[in-house]
Design goal:
The protein is an alpha/beta fold. The chain is 38% helix and 21% strand. Helix 3 links the parallel strand 3 and strand 4. The longest helix is centred in the C-terminal third of the chain and has 15 residues. The N and C termini lie far apart (44 Å).
């Protein structure tokens, strides 16, 4: 049994029931809130291991709830929303979401995203620190620094960066990256990859418009150039 506790903040009773049944059958403990205010109170009284947050709440804008949570809550937040524009996805990531899933979604996809997000709280042991010029990736503690300053990455951004770092210099196809980070069911969802690459470049590149670490291989994928010392 997973025994991780997940707080669902969603005003749709049918969606909450579906998530309760689905997640409960896979060993997760589920608590529910129908409004942003209720969700924030529940999270503060008993912080869950992960939050599933709908953006379309009746009392508060979901982005505002996310920003409020991120003032103190450090565990993963996955946004579930019918809004599928790239601008909305980027805004949610900028506000602190670890991942974003568009409704309707498949059960397997949701479970894979949850597993990936929760792994961020379970760092590996005896892993090396990878040094790439001004970029340091500590695999044991799952931390990243640039010019010796901490870089705040979501779990998905971190997982994507480590896939690149472990395959330095190699061209990685879109399908390979999607499979490694999101799972084998998502190899056609290139929009997620494009958004997360853009977010990652904002955080590790001096000039995201002229990247030196993550290079685009047109029509194929991406290549990580480490520039090791």
């Amino acid at each position: 049994m997973n025994k991780a506790e997940i707080l669902v903040i969603d005003d749709e009773s049918q969606m909450r029931k579906l998530l309760e049944i689905t997640l409960g059958s896979h060993g997760y403990k589920v608590t529910e809130a129908a409004t942003g205010k209720e969700g924030r109170i529940m999270a503060s009284n008993h912080p869950p291991d992960l939050v599933l947050l709908d953006l379309g709440l009746p009392d508060e804008d979901g982005h505002a709830v996310l920003r409020s949570l991120r003032e103190w809550y450090h565990n993963p937040v996955i946004v579930l929303s019918v809004q599928d524009s790239e601008e909305t996805i980027v805004a949610a990531l900028d506000n602190g979401a670890n991942d974003y899933l568009v409704k309707p979604f498949r059960t397997g996809e949701l479970l894979a995203r949850i597993r990936s997000a929760l792994r961020s709280g379970n760092p590996a042991t005896n892993e090396p620190e990878l040094m790439f010029n001004d970029l340091a990736i500590d695999l044991s503690n799952r931390t990243v620094k640039k010019n010796n300053q901490p870089v705040k990455l979501t779990s998905t951004e971190y997982n994507l960066l480590t896939v690149f770092a472990r395959h330095e210099g190699k061209v990685l196809t879109h399908q390979y990256l999607l499979k490694e980070v999101w799972g084998p069911d998502f190899i056609t969802q290139s929009q997620y990859l494009r958004v997360f690459i853009a977010q990652l470049r904002k955080k590790i590149e001096d000039d995201p418009n002229r990247p030196v670490y993550i290079l685009t291989e047109s029509g194929v994928g991406y290549r990580f150039i480490g520039l090791k010392d």
